[in-house]
Amino acid sequence: MAVYTSITYKDAQELFSPLGEIEILEGIKEGVENTNYLVNLTDSKKYILTIFEKRTKEVDLPYFNNLMKLFYDNNISCPLSVTIDNKNLFKIKGKPCCIYTFVEGRPLKDINNQQLKSLGKSIADLHQAGNSSKLFRKNMMLLPTWKYITEKFSNVNPKIYTEEYKYILKNIDYLQDKFPYNLRQVNIHADLFKDNIFFLNNQVSGFIDFFFSCTDTVIYDFATLVNAWFFKNNKFSEDDYLNFLSSYMQNFELNIEEKDKLNFYLKVSAIRFFLTRLYDLHFNIEGDVKHKNPLEFFEIFKFHEKNNIQDFF
After folding, report:
1. DSSP letters along the chain, please?
2. Domains and CATH numbers, the chain
């Protein structure tokens, strides 16, 4: 959602001509992954033009688009890829791109009890829908990316060896052989941060940014959401978490094995975002990008070493 690829009105209008005339073309600067533009047509219809950058592989786009259609068909509000002349994958400035329908609402900074209840039910519905399809894509952001990033840091820039990084590296060595193989796998969002979940009138109005979606454990997706939503200034928001958890558990049942692995996946998810944020800070420096602080997830990892919130189940 950063702006790496600059396009002109003429570039965009050539692509959008079957849909109408563009009135406003506005780059969206939040995020660090792909380039996004908000496109307003003269007939008041809104779309998101997403130009896919290095981390998103063109071969994965059919999976992402099919998964969004699956969720949409299961009453999960999310973008749909727009089809023009029997195709929904296009090129602009030599890069793959898609046009997506617009999801109403805005992300939250703070959340109240009514919103937490809606969040719990919506995530439960998402996981239920993800369990209803044989779509498959391997999660590349865990062990494969850990290996790639640590090798990159070792070979290209030894100065990255901070105390925090060395600490995480030791824990990678410890955790990487302990991934369970007996947990159910479903299609998950895998990036359930606050900026990817929209609200209107205290209710979840939709999910966006499915470009890390994959087939993996429900509890990994759950853990990623917990780390992203229930820590503020390095403190765990216990009351908010319990309100969310109550709503989630009323609508989706985690089994004993999944519950027993929550602490493991909370640490795994913290490592994933610590590493990718650290990588982006050093190597993802093109375009108009606002980088996020990797140390936030180092502190979250340390919290989960000392605390086991799966005791709340």
Report:
1. -BB-S---HHHHHHHHTTT--EEEEEEE--SSSSEEEEEEETTS-EEEEEE--TTS-GGGHHHHHHHHHHHHHTT-----BPPBTTB--EEETTEEEEEEEPPP-B--SS--HHHHHHHHHHHHHHHHHHTT-----B--TTHHHHHHHHHHHHHH-GGG--HHHHHHHHHHHHHTT---SSS-EEEE-S---GGGEEEETTEEEEE---TT-EEEEHHHHHHHHHHHHSEETTEE-HHHHHHHHHHHHHH-PPPHHHHHTHHHHHHHHHHHHHHHHHHHHHH--SSB--PPPTHHHHHHHHHHHH--GGGG-
2. 9-101 (3.30.200.20), 113-312 (3.90.1200.10)
